[in-house]
């Protein structure tokens, strides 16, 4: 699910199609996870196709935001800013700046996961999940 963050970290070193391919891998993971959650919901709630649809949509949107869009954007901007700053603040040769930027991007991945996941939980709970709620919770007054 985090293949695109690795791709974004290496953007300064690899051709752009390699970065795009990393988004393809991440999107395939998100899609597979949504299908898996839908199949599990279908097993448990065979008579309720709405719950199956909600499981698929909720998983796809959550994973799309938390595993692809927001982390990809975050690492992209972090690496772009660090490459620019290193160019301004140091006299390092370009290959060294590019590798330093890649290392920074890779090091940032584990640090951004939890805050992004929590933020996406909050966003989903505050928006999309209010539309369909969860079957286990009582109706809101």
UniProtKB/TrEMBL annotation:
Gene designation: Mtfp1
InterPro entries hit by this protein: Mitochondrial_18_kDa_protein
Any Pfam family: MTP18
Protein source organism: Xiphorhynchus elegans (elegant woodcreeper)
Protein's name in the database: Mitochondrial fission process protein 1
Record lineage: Eukaryota, Metazoa, Chordata, Craniata, Vertebrata
Gene Ontology CC, one term: mitochondrion
Domain of life of the native organism: Eukaryota
Family: Belongs to the MTFP1 family.
GO biological process terms on file: mitochondrial fission
